[in-house]
Design a protein that fits this description.
- This protein has helices at residues 3-30, 39-58, 62-80, 87-109, 119-153, 162-171, 179-185, 196-201, 208-235, 241-262, 273-296, 302-319, 336-357, 361-366, 399-408, 414-417, 422-426, 449-459, 539-542, 615-627; strands spanning 298-300, 322-328, 333-335, 372-382, 385-392, 463-469, 473-481, 486-494, 497-502, 506-516, 518-521, 524-529, 532-538, 554-565, 568-574, 576-584, 598-603, 609-613.
- It is α+β, with helices and mostly antiparallel strands and 628 residues long.
- It has 4 domains: 3-142, HPT domain (Four Helix Bundle (Hemerythrin (Met), subunit A)); 254-296; 299-437 and 444-481, 2-Layer Sandwich (Heat Shock Protein 90); 486-627, CheA-289, Domain 4 (OB fold (Dihydrolipoamide Acetyltransferase, E2P), Beta Barrel), CATH 2.40.50.180.
- The strands form 4 sheets. Strands 10-14-15-13-12-11 form a 6-stranded mixed β-sheet. The chain has a 5-stranded mixed β-sheet with strand order 2-4-5-7-6. Strands 16-8-9-18-17 form a 5-stranded mixed β-sheet.
- Strand 11 (518-521) and strand 12 form a beta hairpin.
- This is Chemotaxis protein CheA.
Amino acid sequence: MERDDVLEYLLEARESLENIEKELLHFEKSTLDGSLVERELLDTLFRHFHTVKGSSGFFGLTAIVKMAHAAENLLDYLRKNPEAQDEDTLEFLITALDHLNELVEHEESSPSGGDFFSEEQTQFLNKLNQKNESIRILLQQTTEESTNKQALSEFGLFSDDVNKKNNQEEFGLFTTDPKPKVAEEFGLFTTETKQIPVEEFGLFQKSSENVAKETIQIQKADDSSKTDKKNIVKKDIRIDTDKLDSLLDIVGEIVITEPMVTDHADIAKLKLENFHKTALQLKKLIRNLQEITLSLRMVPIAGVFSRMERLVRDTAKKTGKQVQLIISGEDTEIDKSIIEEMYDPLVHIIRNAIDHGLETPDERKEAGKPTQGTIQLTATQSGKEVWIEVRDDGKGLSRDRILNKAISLGLIGYSEAEILQDQEVWDFLFHPGFSTAKEVTDLSGRGVGLDVVRKNVTTLKGFVDVFSVYGQGTTFLIRVPLTLAIIEGLVVRKSETYFILPSVDVKESMYVSNEPINELYKNNHSIQYRTNQISIVDINLLFGKDSDLNEQRTLKEKYVIVTESHEKQMGIVFDEILGNQSIVIKPISPIFKNINGLAGCTILGNGHAGLILDVRKLISQHLTSVTT
């Protein structure tokens, strides 16, 4: 068996396991009020486990087969005896799912020939098999008791008792009508008590007829599943992301090359009316091609959101809190590479929200709130960005507590603490090692989580903001670009070098004909911007050289780009603004890797290379240098 074939199957197995997790969580939610689980849901779960078992056996993954088979047996019992559902049974299924995920992940990274790789897995399988065996014995005893009762009832053969008729039907002693047998098979959920023993008895020791019928049912289910897959195949196909990346690179080259041809200096002064019409049509087609290519990498964020349901469930159980997760906007699409990086930030934020934000049921009751806390997870598209919001209705952030911790860590003095805005106070939460938790637990308390959130989101060229009202709850808002492959940028020039500033970081651009500069000391200048004084720099200073603004009293005939990051503003001086355009980001050469403040490079329509600035890092570095 080729390794590539195994890996491709394991990818499909992951999708099946994701579906199982979704259905198990649905199972749990739908039975919280004591309702019986739906037969259709059990059939779906059974089918997923059956598929995983069957396909894994084909690839020789014996551990997965054994685990899925044991879970399948348990589900078979529930399918025929839904009234036997309990929390213990559901936990068995969820734990089996966890072990299956571990086995699939291990087989992907460190193939072990399909065997178990931990003692814990073997012990759990034994435990699950023991439970199935105990069920089998219990059912056998129940059936024997039922048989004895039926034997006694045979003495009443000529009675008109209704129950007697049912016994006759069950054993087929006095009728050749096959219909009653069919009725027994589908009578799993009837209230007829006499039918249940026969069905239970058939759980582990099926008659050949029942086996044949059930096989037909499974085949029909599989056929139905295959039919569904065929329908999906008509709409979707699986493509290697490397091929998509290659396609995007080629389209990016076309986007770059197009203006180099249509706006070439050799034809700029020629009157070529037909050429310009055709060039305009070409621009339009290339724009469409670019948009379609980018859309190929866009996937719904639902995949990440659905994984949060399990996180909320497990964290709530560990903390003893009641939590309801409300998801909306899961159809919002975003670049696949960004989605993959959003999982960790969301895990940290939601885990913190449950562990620190939401109160215990008693605390909530005392505060006049419902005992069940709520976390809302929402995604919306706003222009070229996707906004992901995590909102809880917990106790909110304590400004005093955060400030006291910041002061104790030496991050701020007593006098400064009093004048800080709330947003500046919440910002301390993202400081590495910052935590106000009284004790460290296995969930949180080390001050690592939110540090990771900001680091990951910043890497994606995104922002994370916090809003909180004490006693009412906290909201984390993450803003990330739709895609990292192409950005909208402002192209500017300083001397012979071209730079690109991401449009999202640009607050305003302005032409300065003659404006006084305030020099506080060397390399530290400011300029009047509306009603405030803001720092002003030239690009040389940002890359470690002395500023060209030193010893200048005024700024003459220059362009100032006002940039903004976390409500901190800084003006950067350039000689010329070429305008806004879509920028295809190219990886930066290793030679420039050590230069802080560069996010990448690109080729401009005029054929020149352009350096893409990491504006937020530049602002942070400069403001740190002038305040220390």
